Inverse folding.
């Protein structure tokens, strides 16, 4: 049962990053434009970095590769995204997204503490 829970936890946490990163990759010019509209500096450089963090980090988390480090990066990314993108608390949807990002960071911190578990690339299990 533990192995199934480990896989489910990684899948459920990773899927939001994988889907978001893939969407940004497929709509790259729109992603760059959106980042520019947020006032981010050099959006044409920031966009590939965000895609790498989301898509690459999500896949690494899913498969349990360098899980503690990846989870730490994704937790910091989630907090940064909350602060940069979702601080308009007058908009209830933005407030909910802000809290969602903080909740995701909390879940990711558990991976920082406990690792991927098995089965994973970090800890293959039998």
């Amino acid at each position: 049962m533990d192995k199934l829970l480990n896989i489910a936890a990684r899948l459920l946490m990773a899927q939001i990053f994988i889907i978001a990163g893939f969407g940004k990759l497929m709509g790259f010019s729109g992603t760059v434009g959106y980042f520019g509209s947020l006032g981010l500096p050099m959006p044409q450089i920031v966009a590939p970095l965000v895609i790498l963090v989301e898509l690459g980090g999500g896949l690494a988390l899913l498969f349990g590769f360098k899980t503690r480090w990846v989870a730490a990066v994704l937790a910091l990314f989630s907090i940064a995204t909350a602060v940069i993108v979702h601080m308009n608390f007058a908009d209830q949807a933005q407030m909910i997204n802000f809290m969602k990002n903080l909740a995701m960071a909390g879940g990711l911190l558990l991976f920082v503490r406990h690792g991927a578990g098995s089965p994973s690339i970090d800890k293959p299990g039998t």
